[in-house]
# Entry
Amino acid sequence: MQVPERIPHTPFPFRVPATQHFGAGAVERVADEARRLGARRALVLSDPGVARAGVAGRVRELLEGAGIASGLYDAVEPEPSVASVERAFDAARRGAPDGAPYDLLVGVGGGSALDTAKGVSLRTANPGPLQQYFGVELVPATGLPMILIPTTAGTGSEVTPNAIFDDAERRLKAGIVSHRLMASVAIVDPDLTLSLPPGVTAASGLDALTHAMESYVAVKATPHTDLYALEATRLIGANLRAAVARGEDRVARYGQMLGSFFAGIAITNAGTGLCHAMAYPLGSACHVPHGMANALLLPAVLEYNMTADLPKAARLAAALGEPITGLAPREAAARAAHAVRALSRDAGLPAGLRDAGVPEDALPGFVDGTLSAARLIDNNPRRPTREAVLAIYRQSY
Ligand SMILES: [Fe+2]
# Structure
């Protein structure tokens, strides 16, 4: 029997949302779950695109069919700011059309909609401003329960305790991590991703792959998270190209969504690392979408991190289909970055930060932001120096 190569020295927890539904058509379960939670009035939060595509409307129909009144807030911002969460909270505070307070939030959309639902839930039980809760486990009270329904295969927000917001005043993106932000129910339906355009599929797919690969080598990785992280890597490697090439391929969408879901479970318990720490300043200063920023940085971060544990890096390469039999450990480990570069290129993502519109002279300015994300830096298998971070930015240019 193969045993994990690094056994944690202390007992470790493993957390997931209490109830999860996965599979084609799972969205139909929303009404049963809302009833089970005792909901009478639900606010559905989504972005304008998801509302236009009819998904938010379908969710409201299902709720109302079960006798649950619903309201809609469809002005979620991409990469949401703190101010945009306050606007959504104002809508929630006004209550249902009959004036009575909402007792359930249903987030429907990409990571931005799900994170906004988490921010609103937080604010229903805690005073503003939201910034005071940036960090780990700083939220004093649990807000309204949430059902989270992703329409992209990427963020994993439906299973994580994390919400990421742009703090315009401090010009940085930061995360709130709290068990109070965990959904009561995650409903993950790959059919909801069938109409995603190739660019969104690619960027969110590489975000999910980054979750899988970073959590696999993370300091907080455990035997439990390794199972999810490695299988997520394999599923995304096997399905992303087809999901980008033919969006209506239901088999590819199913595999891609399962991979993203598993990667979310892995980061809930093992966290992410240097790649995410380096991606946030790019999002904040240059508005590079989160998934694309990760895609551009991941290969060089993998190369930097691989010396911390060559066999683990080699297993990531194998999970992406690289032939590593007979290779020396270092060569085998290096194949992981090679495989990610090929996948990213085949998915149609830019070749480097230059092509994503990042000015070269801005790179040194991102180093402080990267190193200030202590939660991520402390979880990275190698402790990066300022010089190493700048070298990775330049290598990714
Ligand atoms: Fe991410």
The longest helix spans residues 223-245. The chain has two domains: 19-193, 198-395. The mean pLDDT is 95. The pocket of fe (ii) ion is lined by residues 207, 210-211, 276, 290, 294 (CB under 6 Å).
